Amino acid sequence: MFTLYHTNDLHSEFEYLGKVFAYLKKHRQADDLYFDAGDLLDLKDSLVSADGGYLTLDLVSQFGLDLLALGNNEIDLGFEGIQSLLDQQFPLICANIHDNSGQTLRGLPNKRVLTRQGCRLLVIGLAPYYGQGMRADSYNGFFKLGNLMTGDPFRALEDLFREEEGNYDVCVLLSHSGLEVDQEFLARYPQIDLILGGHSHDFVITDRYSQVGFMGQGLGRIQIDKVDGIWQIIAMDHINLEENYDQDFMEDLEKKRQQAEEMMSLPLKCVSNLSFDPYQECPLINFICDCLLDAFPGDLAIMHHGIAEGPLTLPVSRKSLLELFPSKLNPTYYKLKGSAIIEAYNLSLNQNHISQEGRGPGFRGHVLGTLAFSHNVLISDGELFLNGELVDPDKEYSIVTDDYLQRGTGYRSLAVPDDVCNYHKWFIRDLVKNYLDRQDIFIQAHKSRTMNCDLKIDVEGE
User: Fold this and answer.
1) First-to-last CA distance in the chain?
2) d(CA 95, CA 93)
3) Which of 43, 54, 178, 315 is the most exposed, fewest CB within 10 Å of its CB?
4) Nearest to residue 123, comparing CAs of 61, 70, 175, 189?
């Protein structure tokens, strides 16, 4: 008998891995395995953002991670980032990813056959392709910005089942596809003995399936043994890790965090501070709107105040920008009727609405916040004017925003389908970084978009 331990969706909660390390160090036997179903590496953490994951690679290698499925957060590293990790022998696995030209990544296996005590485990890795409601091709609008695309996992599975027929005893699917898609895999393919899932952040342990929540809710444990001559899964459960952290691991984590902090804390040239308020017009979110309108084609820019966690204050560094703008949201531009813009603006005046939590895909902030507009929008007596003309409810406008609002999160009238949008590979924090030296936009950000409302000037020299 041997044991398969697993985690999923840790999102760079490396402190939790200190508990995993302590448990495995005490209980793991020579033939036991440890898998992760993806979203282990998250750019929200400076340890990953500092150098694209190399510090993390050295950290993770200490506790014997055998295989890691490619989650959407690993894919955020882009083609070059993932290829670099593969070249350093990071144990990634994925059967349904390629670059934008259709080429597979060098050194990335679509499956592995691991042998333990004579048992041949066929392990297949899958990255997300289907969205909620089994909507196909839901992620490539973003993935392709990093020169990566995922393909239909059903086709990938069927090809592998044909190729590997008779060559394994137990089939394990390491899937970052989400519970809904995983359930369809189980219904279609009796060849699958076990799915270790992720992506949907569910806590489910049932027949042939295990997913253990989000950011360290549990360590999954699967026991495999030979019964009447056949290798079978004989037990499935999870472990609540109450043991102490492994001291050596935690000391190494602290050293690597210090290294990452040094890399990320180098000061960037920046014009001045920008004040912030989540619930009313402020220079920081005005600044983001004006950067969006300057960088991308559009009639006007719109941004939700919840994108920021506080004011922009000197000194500014990559570290402070990551802390200030933790959300992984991309500049997005598309067309929308004036009536939809007016509806969203009116909703942004509702204090109860804008005070709610801003939960949504890619969002890492705390509140929804009100809406801000680019400098060419004037608000007077509750009406919106664009370049001096009243916004026409029946006219179509090109807006620049982010994919949070494009999905209609918090402001449903701003939602449009992905396939009518253009996305940029920057996150909003990257946009801000590239405009830190633009004094003209800093000054412009202090010009109120609301008639008879003054904003405090805090640009140096003003």
Assistant:
1) 73
2) 7
3) 315
4) 175
> In 3D, which of 71, 1, 63 has the Cα closest to residue 41?
71
Question: Using one digit for the tens of pLDDT, what is the confidence trace for 427-447?
Answer: 999 999 999 999 999 999 999
Is residue 102 within 8 A of residue 109, CB to CB? The reply is: no
* Dist. CA 370–CA 209, nearest whole Å: 42
CATH 3.10.290.10 fits 2-260, yes or no: no
Residue 317 identity: S
Alpha-carbon distance 328 to 429, whole Å?
A: 9
**Of 382, 381, 353, 378, which is closest to residue 368 (Cα–Cα)?**
353
Q: Domains of the chain: which residue ranges?
A: 2-260, 267-445
Q: Which of these ranges, 177-186, 238-247, 250-259, 422-431, has the smallest mean pLDDT?
A: 238-247
Using CA atoms, how far residue 92 sits from 172, 178, 397, in Å, is 15, 18, 43
Helices 247-264 and 14-27 sit at what angle, rounded to 10 degrees? 150
C-beta of residue 245 within 8 angstroms of C-beta of residue 19: yes
Quick check: pTM over 0.85? no
155-168 pLDDT, tens digit per residue, is: 999 999 999 999 99
The chain-wide mean pLDDT, for the chain, equals 94
For residue 462, pLDDT over 50 is answered with: no
Kindly state the tokens that stand for 129: 């392709």
pLDDT band, residue 110 (cuts 50/70/90): very high
Determine contact, residues 396/335, Cβ cutoff 8 Å. yes
Instruction: Kindly tell me if the per-residue pLDDT of 255 is higher than 80.
Output: yes
Q: Is the pLDDT of residue 458 over 60?
A: no
Answer whether CATH 3.40.640.10 is correct for domain 267-445.
Answer: no
d(CA 168, CA 231): 10
Structure tokens at 176: 């970052």
Sheet holding 92-93, edge to edge: 92-93, 67-69, 33-36, 2-7, 219-227, 230-239
